[in-house]
Amino acid sequence: MSFNNLDQLYRSVIMDHYKNPRNKGALEENSVTIDMNNPTCGDRIHLTLKLNDGVVEDAKFDGEGCSISMSSASMMTQIVKGKKLDEALELADIFSKMMLGEDFDDEKYDLGDVEALQGVAKFPARIKCATLAWKAMEKGVNNEKK
């Protein structure tokens, strides 16, 4: 597949998550709630996680932001569901490395749609948009682990 076709495919995946977000909403019972924003662009996220016995049982988000921010939140909630807390944190680390253009172990986990965000690394101003939901998830999981 040519670079242009791959780039177009990635854009399609991002727009699909933006227009049809997965896991949009909030969890009520026994959930960890994290609110974060990106003051430079106005993106904001309200993330709720249901954590049980060291596992992310469920994850939902709400908020406002650009297509990168909201798509990333949708993808993140999908990939962390069912993961152990350490695995969720490891996925956040992999995502952070991907955003910085660093090498990462892409064979341990199937990143699925998350790979569509690789191109964001070419636009430093947009990296904070892509990482907002992931930083919120890290904060919630790390608080739970303490």
Helix/strand layout:
Blueprint: H1 3-19, E1 32-38, E2 43-52, E3 55-64, H2 67-80, H3 85-99, H4 124-145
Antiparallel strand pairs: 1-2, 2-3
Helix pairs in contact: 1-2, 2-4, 3-4
Q: List how many beta strands DSSP finds.
A: 3
The termini sit apart by 46 Å
Specify the structural class: alpha+beta
Might you state the CATH topology name?
Sufe protein. Chain: A
The radius of gyration over CA amounts to 14 Å
Question: Helical proportion?
Answer: 40-55%
Assign an overall shape. Answer: globular
Domain NIF system FeS cluster assembly NifU N-terminal: 10-129
GO molecular function: iron ion binding; iron-sulfur cluster binding
Protein name: NifU-like protein
Family: Belongs to the NifU family.
Quick synopsis:
It comes from Solibacillus isronensis B3W22. This protein has 146 residues and is an alpha+beta fold. Helix content is 47%, strand content 18%.
Account of the protein in words:
Belongs to the NifU family. This is NifU-like protein. It comes from Solibacillus isronensis B3W22. The longest helix has 22 residues, at 124-145. The chain starts with a helix and ends with a helix. Helix 1 (3-19) crosses helix 2 and helix 3 packs antiparallel against helix 4 (124-145). It has helices at 3-19, 67-80, 85-99, 124-145, and strands at 32-38, 43-52, 55-64. It is of the alpha+beta class and 146 residues long. The chain is globular and about 45 Å long.
